[in-house]
Amino acid sequence: MARAGILYSDVVRAATELLATGKTVTVDNVRKAMGDTGSKSTIAPYLKQWKESQEGEARLQQASLPEGLLNQVKALYATLQEDAALNMQAQEAEFAEKEADFASQRATWQTEQQQLHAAAEQFRSELAEWRQSTRDAERQCTHLSQSLQQLQAEHQALLQRFTDKEQQVTELKQQNTQQLRQFEHLQQAALTQRQEERASFEARSSHLEVQLQHAHQQLQALQEQFARQSSEQSSLMQLYEALLNSHQQLKLSAEQDKLSLQELQFTIRLRDQELAGMAEKTAFSEQKRQQLHDELQITRHMHAQQEKQCRKLEQEQQEMRELHEVERRQYEASLLKLTQEMQREMAVAAARLAATHQGK
């Protein structure tokens, strides 16, 4: 762009000076003569116009016009050149202004172009990221579809396992019901048997009690009889001692009364026979008492055996109850464990399905 203030007259003055000094009139020399001011694009048209004017003057001089007319033509030509220079200067100023506006617009356009280029680059980057994210999403979608298919297969497997477990639970319930029925039947049978045995035992016990009471009564009677016989034997012994004393006395007086002694001896023999009979009777009572005592011991032993058998039956029934209770608890524990495992597996499958839906 030309420096403001450079006119056609400045270029004419510089060219005239160069021509007077004998130097070649060129754009560079003219610019150097003006102090290196002005642009070549401004100096070149002025210099071309000056050269044309020099050629015109040369043609006028060759035409041999009158001097007055020639001066008028030169003045008109100078005026025209001056007007043309002014017009050109105005056009150059307008061009410079337009060029400045164009440069400003160009800078604005370049800035906008850079912004658009940056926006385009950002858009390309975002488009690449979007495409990459789209590919990642497609891969993730494919992976999720595979995971969903796998989870659906696992879900079907879990449902099948759940169905199998339910069938097992139903079978276990049926088995438990059957075992309960068998246990109730056994318990009822044991209870009936125990009741029958208890009734039989009570009947036998009542019978034995009656026999025992009768034996007690007999024993008491024998004891009373034995006491009476013991009392009589004591009396007889006292009598025997008295007789012995009398016998001694009779011996002392044997010589006095032999007949009385014989009678007394006969009486003593009778008493001895009676005493022997009473002794045999006492021995028979003792044997009978011992027999009753043995029967009483046998009855007590049988009663103890029956009590022991009853306790054994009660213990066996209690063991059966405890065994059934242990089996029932084991069944309930296994059923609870199986239910908890199924619930955990269903919860894990539901969580996986929920995670898969969230991922989608």
Sum this structure up briefly.
92% of the residues lie in helices and 0% in strands. The chain is an all-alpha fold and 360 residues long.
Descriptive overview:
The chain is mainly α and 360 residues long. It has a domain at 156-359: Helix Hairpins, CATH 1.10.287. Helix content is 92%, strand content 0%. The chain contains five helices and no strands. It has helices spanning 8-21, 27-33, 40-63, 67-252, 258-359. Helix 1 packs across helix 2 and helix 4 runs antiparallel to helix 5. The chain is rod-shaped.
The span between the termini is 65 Å
Taking pLDDT < 50 over at least 5 consecutive residues as the criterion, the unreliable ranges are none
Name the CATH architecture of the domain at 156-359: Orthogonal Bundle
List the helices and strands in order.
Answer: HHHHH
Helix content: over 70%
Strand and helix layout:
Elements: H1 8-21, H2 27-33, H3 40-63, H4 67-252, H5 258-359
Helix pairs in contact: 1-2, 1-3, 2-3, 3-4, 4-5
Question: Which features characterize this protein?
Answer:
single chain; 360 residues; mainly alpha; Helix Hairpins; 5 helices; 92% helix; rod-shaped
